[in-house]
Design goal:
mainly beta, Endonuclease - Pi-scei, Chain A, domain 1, six-stranded mixed sheet, globular
């Protein structure tokens, strides 16, 4: 369970293992100012979300930054895009199914939506999906995004805010 830290827009995860739905430190988020590391984002910062109906990027603000600890993370790659560490519960958008799918359920060949800040949104196939090396518990982060989309681009791949 996430517990807000009053006035900071930050939260810490409780002991429940299923509450961790996040990315490791260093994961880059697509923003109007270019890529920014997830741990460097603050409440009020702008990020890109995707209107699924129009398949068009829109600018939204960060409403909360969440922080937790995780012992198991996955490495997910699609084309040239790589997420070095994501918890198994974090949803990615499966373009073929038109549905959100937890990272742990992704398989090679799953079609993900990708956008790097220019050109069109495109589909990329998952090319790698495996446990990431981990040295015990690691800090993981998630964002809550204002607006109806409730998503953002992590390393260029569309993910749900899951909070």
């Amino acid at each position: 369970m996430w517990r807000p830290i009053a006035g900071l827009g930050l939260s810490m995860a409780g002991a429940a293992r299923g509450s961790d739905s996040c990315f490791v430190r260093g994961t880059r988020i697509v923003t109007p100012r270019g890529f920014r590391r997830i741990e460097d984002l603050d409440v009020g910062d702008e990020v890109f979300s995707l209107s699924l109906e129009r398949r068009a990027p829109v600018v939204r603000r960060v409403a909360r930054v969440l922080r937790a600890r995780a012992t198991e993370v996955l490495h997910v790659a699609a084309g040239e895009l790589v997420v070095a560490g994501v918890t198994a519960e974090h949803p990615f958008y499966d373009a073929a199914r038109g549905a959100w799918v937890d990272a742990g359920a992704l398989r090679e060949g799953t079609r993900l939506l990708a956008w790097l800040g220019s050109a069109d949104v495109r589909e990329l196939s998952v090319t790698a999906h495996r446990p990431a090396p981990s040295a015990g518990k690691v800090d993981v982060f998630n964002l809550t995004i204002d607006g109806p989309e409730r998503n953002y681009f992590a390393e260029g791949l569309l993910v749900h805010n899951k909070s």
